[in-house]
Design the sequence.
């Protein structure tokens, strides 16, 4: 016997659609506010909505469809994070210490870049101006942050959050949504 889920109401649909667009993504309180719930009860309403089978099923369906459409798998995400976490800066330079051209870098090294800048340097002004060299700047993603994220994705690092005291449900939800050490 298969149970059929109820269709989403207008507000439930707005809540689900707002979830991935919040900062940080999937912040239930912010999504509830964007769906039109009042500020005072948004956190509690978010918890209530997230527990509803039809809402949670719709969220999962949305995530699955997006992942499939963009060809994003858990392995691919972990591989991309690992590129930054396990970055070897030596891969960006030749044996004489000169930077390798971006187009000549291996794909994995290029994908680990956060950015790069390239400038041609000149001396003089006007007609007497002449090129004297180049400035190349390479920026990598934060390696320590990438290592921490990789450890979390692989289950090597689990952050615990302790909350003590007496709370209303709304206060508890708000406290749980705050980032660690925040």
Sequence:
């Amino acid at each position: 016997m298969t149970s059929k889920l109820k269709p989403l109401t207008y507000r439930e649909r707005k809540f689900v659609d707002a979830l991935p667009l919040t900062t940080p993504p999937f912040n239930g309180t912010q999504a509830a506010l964007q769906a039109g719930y009042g500020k005072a009860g948004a956190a509690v309403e978010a918890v209530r909505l997230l527990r509803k089978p039809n809402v949670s099923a719709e969220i999962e369906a949305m995530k699955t469809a997006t992942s499939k459409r963009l060809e994003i798998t858990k392995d691919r995400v972990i591989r991309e994070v690992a590129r930054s976490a396990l970055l070897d800066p030596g891969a960006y330079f030749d044996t004489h210490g000169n930077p390798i051209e971006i187009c000549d870098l291996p794909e994995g090294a290029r994908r680990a870049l956060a950015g790069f800048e390239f400038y041609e340097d000149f001396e003089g002004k006007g007609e007497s101006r002449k090129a004297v060299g180049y400035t190349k700047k390479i920026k990598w993603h934060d390696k320590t942050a990438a290592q921490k994220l990789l450890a979390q994705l692989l289950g090597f690092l689990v952050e615990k959050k302790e909350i003590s005291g007496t709370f209303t449900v709304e206060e508890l939800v708000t406290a749980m949504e705050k980032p660690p050490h925040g």
